[in-house]
Please model this.
Amino acid sequence: VDVDEASHLARMVGDGPPGLVRDLGAIVGREQVLAPAPASYLADEGRQAHRALQGHAEAVVRPGTADEVARVVAWCYANDVPVVPRGGGTGLSGGAVPFGGVVLALERLTAVREFDPLRWRIAVEAGMTTFGLKRLVRESGLVFPPDPGAGEQSQIGGNVSTNAGGPHAFRFGTTGAWVTGLEVVLPPGELVRIGGPVRKDVAGYDLRSLLVGSEGTLGVVTTAWLKLLPAPEAVRVVVGVYPDVASGCDALEAVIGSGLLPAALEYFDGGTLRHVARGFPTPLPDEAGFMVIAEVDGSEQEAARQAVELADVLAEGSVAVFAPEPGRDVDALWRWREGVGLVVTQVHGGRISDDHVVPLERLRDAIAAMEQIGARYGLEAASFGHAGDGNLHAGFLYAPGGLDQVERAEAAALELYPPTLALDGSVAGEHGVGVHKLVQAQEQLGPRRQALQHAIKQVFDPKGLLNPGKKVGPAPGP
Ligand SMILES: Cc1cc2nc3c(=O)[nH]c(=O)nc-3n(C[C@H](O)[C@H](O)[C@H](O)COP(=O)(O)OP(=O)(O)OC[C@H]3O[C@@H](n4cnc5c(N)ncnc54)[C@H](O)[C@@H]3O)c2cc1C
Model:
C-alpha cells in the first residue's frame, strides 16, 4: 500500500514536459543528463537485503556544482517535475527510488569546501563518500565518528539526509550530532545556508535538525559543515560469547551499569551466529547463542585498563571472552561485522529485515517476539545490531523463488511492528522511512504529530515535488 501511495503521488504530479532533457542539459551539460534513466539509478540496496523495488524516471541529472543543483530544482519546480535526490543509493527503505520525474544524482559534488584540522572541522560537498571523508581526515589525525555499513558507496549528503548511525553511534551519536551547518537547495530552487562552522546556534527554530534525516523531502543537501575529533591513540575490542539471549542481554546491561563507556556495543543472536560464525576471525565455541562486541579507546594505558575491566564485566554468564589483537585483528573483526547482513541474506537468497529500536532493557523482548513470529511462519529469524542503542536489524530469511515464502516473510516482518511499539520503541532507527515504513511510521506518530509533519512538508515544499510520497507520505485529504 505504501509503495503504491508514493508511486500514485508521483504520477499525479507528472513526469515532465517534452523539453526536459534539452532544458536540463542546457544547465548541467547534455552528457550529464542520462535518458533513458539507467536501471542502476532506479533502485536502492533494499533490493539486496530487503524488498525488490524498481522505480522509473524520465532522466538522471548529474549537476557538477551547487549552483547547478539550484537551477535544476528551479526548472523542475517551474515545470511541475518531481525531483528525487540520490546519494550512493545504499539506502534500505526505498527513499532514493524514483516513481517518475528526475533523479538528481549528487555524485559529482565531491569538493572539500574548507578543512581546518587544528579546529577539528571540515565542510565537504554532499557527494563525497563516507569512507572518502573518513580517510581524508584520518591523514590529519582526526576522525569523523559516524560509520554506517556501506561507507565506500554511501555519500555524506545521504548520511545527513537519513541521519545515518552505525556501531559507533552508541557513544558518538548519529550523523546529525556532527553537523553544524548545511548548504541546501530549497524549493523553488534557492541555495540557502543554515548554520556553518559555529558549534552552537539557537537563532530561530532548529532548521538544521529538521533537514537532518529528512530523506530528500524538504531540501537537497549540497554541502555539510562537520565536526571532527582527534583520533584516539589506542583502540581495544573485547568479545563476549553467551549460550542464549537472556545471558547475552544481561551482559549488555551489565556493561552499561558498570560505568564504562564503550565507543561501540554490538550484538548478534544465535540465528545470525549460526551463519556468520564460520567467517569470524577467531573460532567461536559451539555453544555460541549470542555474542557481544564492545570497543573502548583512549591512550594506550587507558584503553588497556578499560579492556581489562570490560572483559571482567563481560565474563559473567559467558562461555568465552577474548580480546582480538589491536590493529590487524580488530580491523578484520570490523570488516567481518560489515559483511554480516549480506552473508545472512545469502543463506537462502533473501532476507526481509527492518530497523527497529527499543529501550535497551527491552531488547530481549524484541528478539523473543521476532523468534516467535518466525516460528509461527516457519521462517528462520536472525537479528543483530547496535545493542547499546537498542537498535536491532531483525530479519526473516526466505528463498526468493518461493512466492509463498516471500509472502510469509513480508507478513512476518509486518507483525513485528506492533510489538516494537508496545515495547516503547520506534519502527525506524537509522535506515529512514522511505516508502517501506510509511504506514508503520504514521501509526507510531499518531494524528497530531502526523499533521505537524505534513504542515512542515507543506511549508518547505508547497508543490510536493521533492521526493514525493516518501518519509511522511501523502497529506491526508480535506
Ligand atoms: C550493507 C549496508 C550496511 C548499512 N549499514 C548501515 C548502518 O550501520 N547504519 C545506518 O544508518 N545505515 C546503514 N545502511 C543504510 C545506508 O547506507 C544509509 O542510510 C546511508 O546513509 C545512505 O546514504 P546514500 O548516500 O547511499 O543515500 P541514498 O540511498 O542515495 O539516499 C537515501 C535517502 O537520502 C536522500 N538523499 C541522498 N542524498 C541526498 C542529498 N544530497 N540531499 C537530500 N537528500 C538526499 C535520498 O533521496 C533518500 O531518501 C547500510 C546499508 C547497507 C547496504
User: Anything to note?
Assistant: The first strand starts at residue 33 and ends at 34. Residues 44-45, 84-92, 95-96, 106, 126, 148-150, 154-155, 157-159, 161-162, 164-166, 215-216, 220-221, 341, 430-432, 467, 470 surround flavin-adenine dinucleotide (CB under 6 Å).
